[in-house]
Amino acid sequence: MTATELKLTNTKTRRKEVFTPIDPDNVRMYVCGPTVYDRAHLGNARPAVVFDMLFRVLREVYGPEHVTYVRNITDVDDKINARAAETGRSIREITDETTGWYLEDMAALGTLPPTHVPRATEYIPQMVAMIETLIARGHAYVAEGHVLFDVRSYGAYGALSGRSVDDMIAGARVEVAPYKRDPMDFVLWKPSEAGLPGWDSPWGRGRPGWHIECSAMSHELLGESFDIHGGGNDLQFPHHENEIAQSCCAHPEGGFAKVWMHNEMLQVEGKKMSKSLGNFFTVRDLLDQGVPGEVIRFVFLGTHYSKPMDWTEKKAEEAKKTLAGWYNLTDGVRAMKRVDQELLEVLCDDLNSPAAIARLHEIARRGTAEQLKWALTFLGFPEAEKVNWFRDFHVTLTGTAAEGDTPLYVDEITPFLRKWQKLRMEKNYEAADDLKAKLEAVGLKISNFRDGPVAKVPRDFDPKCLKVLL
Ligand code: AMP
Ligand code: ZN
User: Fold this and answer.
1) What confidence category does residue 169 fall into, taking pLDDT thresholds of 50, 70 and 90?
2) Residues 425-433: contacts with CB within 8 Å, 24+ apart?
3) In this structure, which ligand is nearest to the CA of 281?
């Protein structure tokens, strides 16, 4: 353990506080994960990257084996049921496929696998048990096959977002249902008609409400009190208020989450990116367009998690240029063994990732390649040796200096190299220079080495532009 002090802004107190773990041998964090009915949009990736960065910092400070990170999969939800009905596919098929996509896409962004990725449907008995406890303690009631949480029975309701119950009723569009005693009461369990997923319970065949999932899974995997609970800002109310109400009423002896952290939203034209607004694109869309995952990660880290962020192509282009430079510097270099204390310190200051990127710029300018390599790895960027997109490729008369399956257009380029070599051998320097200038104009850098001419081919080279030279 280092002497670095970690400070985090706690939504619950609205202050930046020194973080002291309940048990430094097992620092525990829970983050609300995706509902799996569709590809993750870019906004969904923000909490994954933000809390991955926090996970990495916690692992550095407390030791990798002393941190437990849980990020759930919500695989029971009416949106999933609707998707199954629309497509005629089974729910399990949809949730399995979408979960696989999510894990794949988040891995492409350099996020480490959490310690546990629990699926809600595997924790139904724990949810039922928790609901039974809530009923027994007088915090929940059964009505028309539903079980509802009695919000008025929990005095501290609203403390996280700092609103009174009456304010919340006025501000939120709460669903008024005849079986609710109070419009704010929320569903813990609801009946499932035939054809919908359901589990047997003391209240008949049904399925859990969304909020109870996180309370039951975090309790099972992390205990009645744990250190950090994270998620997007949009989940503060009602989801997180409801999680707190359920967990604190079922396990009043525990304090549930000590620190609450919320990332701000990813925006498009000033509006939250979301499926319901239709202004979204997926992580996979970007990856398929050739934006490398590490470039997306770099852009994300450039904005503090507590600030709204815009995704722009310009940011992505700049990030790509910077990263390419850093990858060129660190390619084939062995990473420094020692932690860069300054980098760790800015990240320990409420996860100041823009300051971390600034520190990397400074290391690149004034430090060593070994330091830079450590820093890049610490921020979750893959090592240069595992990345290809930043490399320029070289084509020679005898082959290429590039690996991988990228088309290198050897057949298209070598005739020009041969022609250039011939002109030079014939001492027709004027024509040789003219050809060289024309090749450079289309992006090929031509030079002469001991073994003959070499063309440096940019990654995005388009051989069609050679046609004009034929
Ligand atoms: P959902 O699948 O909608 O429950 O969202 C999964 C996670 O993504 C939650 O932590 C949300 O807060 C987060 N999220 C959703 N939209 C955005 C957005 N536009 N920007 C940042 N985070 C988001
Ligand atoms: Zn949750």
Assistant:
1) confident
2) none
3) 1
